[in-house]
């Protein structure tokens, strides 16, 4: 409301209370104070413990009581209880440069809202009581690299959760990895190839597929053989495979010649299946259909050495309405493995290779039953592989302990 048309707060308080007395439907609420803020808005406060909502239907009849103009103000609404939050250290965008080298302008409210909702799941469906904005004027942001953003929500539980998490994702200041979309390898709606190069560690190529078996030899997983994939490179293949095979499916499923060809190609290129046989990843909404294992992840030997699917897990909490469960992992080459954690030292300088080999072979023979499954022809389960690996490692350790004293 323009300053020259505003009535004084005392008369506003008196006149609105008189209006309430003349309109019994409003009830017995009383206006305690009337105040004009710096933006020219009139803020009315009721007595402690009283809600102003009974007065809301009459807002359109009150403008003559606080302004001398006959024009109805643009907006009149209840000031609901909200919870204001402030996020510090947000990049203003002023220091960024566009492709043509021209400095970028500071992020505006709409960009802040989009960024907050896009990268913070808790805010995706949340209504802002106060839209996010920088706490200092836009003119001053032009020379600041970072500033604080304030916003408010009406949902108290959501506000408490945000505070508990202590962080929001907003315009990352530094990327921990360089991610490159490899459209030079393939540009296809069913195949996406990404190179991930952390600041510390080797590059890994992640291939995400949506595989449609009805396409025969045009399905995504079969067509991988036609791609010019980087040689001597750690590679992870993952996605919705929509395939059934004895290697991963529950029971003894029907398979196809093309599925066998896909598995054979993966074997030839030293890819290892991460999924545990029989552990479902797909739970159809139609309860008459059985769960199945169709979301799969393979790593080649180089990716396995780098542990590029560290802490791989099926995570039901990542499922958001889909009948497929989420699968998560991390690639953190910054974690260092502690060698010889027990601090046991062996003097190998005086050990004859023949003595160690003889002792090692004896230990292998003692564990022959544990190693037989991986030496025989046929399908080997993940449990059998793990058991054999433990037996093999134990044989090496025991042999070393015996000959290197």
TrEMBL record:
Keywords, in A-Z order: Endonuclease, Hydrolase, Nuclease
InterPro entries noted in UniProt: Endo/exonu/phosph_ase_sf (IPR036691), Endo/exonuclease/phosphatase (IPR005135)
Endonuclease/exonuclease/phosphatase domain span: 206-327
Keyword Transmembrane: no
Organism domain of life: Eukaryota
A UniProt-annotated Pfam family: Exo_endo_phos_2
Molecular function GO labels: endonuclease activity
Identification of the protein by name: Endonuclease/exonuclease/phosphatase
Organism of derivation: Lentinula raphanica
